[in-house]
Write a structure and sequence with these properties.
- 38% of the residues lie in helices and 16% in strands.
- The protein is of the alpha+beta class.
- It has one domain.
- The chain starts with a helix and ends in a 6-residue tail after the last strand.
Length: 50
């Protein structure tokens, strides 16, 4: 069970710029169940214009 590198990089970049970022949705369920996820949803407090 490995989180896709791109998804981790997005979360890290957001956090490095001072935003909060969390995995959300079905990928969290899949992580708990130790299954490979088809996609990764990320919740953040960054606004689109940021």
């Amino acid at each position: 069970m490995a989180v896709k590198q791109n998804a981790l990089e997005i979360v890290k970049t957001l956090k490095d710029h001072g935003y909060k970022a969390f995995f959300a949705g079905g990928c969290v369920r899949d992580m708990i169940m130790r299954k490979e996820s088809a996609d990764y949803d990320i919740a953040t407090n960054a606004l689109p214009q940021d």
